[in-house]
Amino acid sequence: MAAAIKKVGVIGAGQMGNGIAHVAALGGFDVILNDVSADRLKSAMATINGNLSRQIAKKLISEDARKQALARITATEKLDGLSDCDLVIETAVEKEETKRKIFNELCAVLKPEAIVASNTSSISITRLAASTDRPERFIGIHFMNPVPVMELVELIRGIATDDATFETAKAFVTKLGKQIAVSEDFPAFIVNRILLPMINEAIYTLYEGVGNVEAIDMAMKLGAHHPMGPLELADFIGLDTCLSIMQVLHEGLADSKYRPCPLLVKYVEAGWLGRKTQRGFYDYRGDKPVPTR
Ligand SMILES: NC(=O)c1ccc[n+]([C@@H]2O[C@H](COP(=O)([O-])OP(=O)(O)OC[C@H]3O[C@@H](n4cnc5c(N)ncnc54)[C@H](O)[C@@H]3O)[C@@H](O)[C@H]2O)c1
């Protein structure tokens, strides 16, 4: 039997966290949005407001729906503000150590019957679940970026996830108007298992001088009908997230074909993480993005 979800906690107010808070609030759920950074919380609320307004301009929602959605979201820097949530979705940085630490602190304050989910792009749900006090009530709910626009959500059961948790997550995602693809718990699941090696290969293509940024992105847009070029997409996802996913694939599947491109490693080491830091394969500081190679 699916449990009734009324209040949803979201941990991490980055690009995914603000999107998940947005669609959950619009779907009628009360949302508690948490981040360690007060600045990130502030900018997440501004982004949500801006994206809701954009949906009004496109006549997708009414002004009333925007007001109600905003009123349903509470921002907090304190994890214990999430104690009475029915479902908590962790969407902080793609680092297993950080996620484990969050689950440790969260489970100490969260009501025992609540479900805990991770929006991880690649990390084992079974392993994350085992770091909590409730592996049977733990599940992967993997949203796509940008959350308000993308239709798909992957659901991933860990080995211990029980049927009620799966049904509850399914009902929650359906209420958000999203389609579900069920994935087994393998590194990077379905979408990123296919997408990230393609992006990594595009970075190798750049690294080896086969083409420059503009040529590679144009080739895949016009030659393969992709809506965004792979390097543009990497910048959009975040190069740190791309690298973490490739590392999980490389280590988890123990196959050299997943080796992260050294150029991707170098960009992340430089702090050039894509759109979120204004510089990645493109420079975003001007009116329009300028290729950097
Ligand atoms: N970027 C994508 O396209 C995408 C798509 C699907 C899933 N994901 C996954 O979603 C998660 C978040 O990615 P993102 O792109 O939103 O990253 P991001 O860098 O935009 O945001 C991460 C946020 O987590 C916060 N944070 C860090 N440690 C925290 C803690 N201990 N407690 C609370 N908040 C903390 C940071 O302050 C930041 O605001 C990752 O696991 C990523 O793999 C990303």
TrEMBL record:
Gene3D superfamilies: N-(1-d-carboxylethyl)-l-norvaline Dehydrogenase, domain 2, NAD(P)-binding Rossmann-like Domain. GO terms for molecular function: 3-hydroxybutyryl-CoA dehydrogenase activity; NAD+ binding. NAD(+) binds at residues 12-17, 35, 94, 99, 121, 145, 276. InterPro entries: 3-OHacyl-CoA_DH (IPR022694), 3-OHacyl-CoA_DH_CS (IPR006180), 3-OHacyl-CoA_DH_NAD-bd (IPR006176), 3HC_DH_C (IPR006108), 6-PGluconate_DH-like_C_sf (IPR008927), 6PGD_dom2 (IPR013328), NAD(P)-bd_dom_sf (IPR036291). It comes from the Bacteria. Coiled coil: none annotated. Residues 189-284 form the 3-hydroxyacyl-CoA dehydrogenase C-terminal domain. GO terms for biological process: fatty acid metabolic process. The record marks 142 as: Important for catalytic activity. Its EC number is 1.1.1.157. The keyword Disulfide bond does not apply. Residues 7-183 form the 3-hydroxyacyl-CoA dehydrogenase NAD binding domain. It is an enzyme of class 1 (oxidoreductase). SUPFAM superfamilies: 6-phosphogluconate dehydrogenase C-terminal domain-like (SSF48179), NAD(P)-binding Rossmann-fold domains (SSF51735). Pfam families: 3HCDH (PF00725), 3HCDH_N (PF02737). Transmembrane segments: none annotated. Keywords: NAD, Oxidoreductase. PANTHER family: 3-HYDROXYACYL-COA DEHYDROGENASE FAMILY PROTEIN, 3-HYDROXYBUTYRYL-COA DEHYDROGENASE. Belongs to the 3-hydroxyacyl-CoA dehydrogenase family. This is 3-hydroxybutyryl-CoA dehydrogenase. It comes from Rhodopseudomonas palustris (strain ATCC BAA-98 / CGA009). The lineage of its organism: Bacteria, Pseudomonadati, Pseudomonadota, Alphaproteobacteria, Hyphomicrobiales. The gene is hbdA.
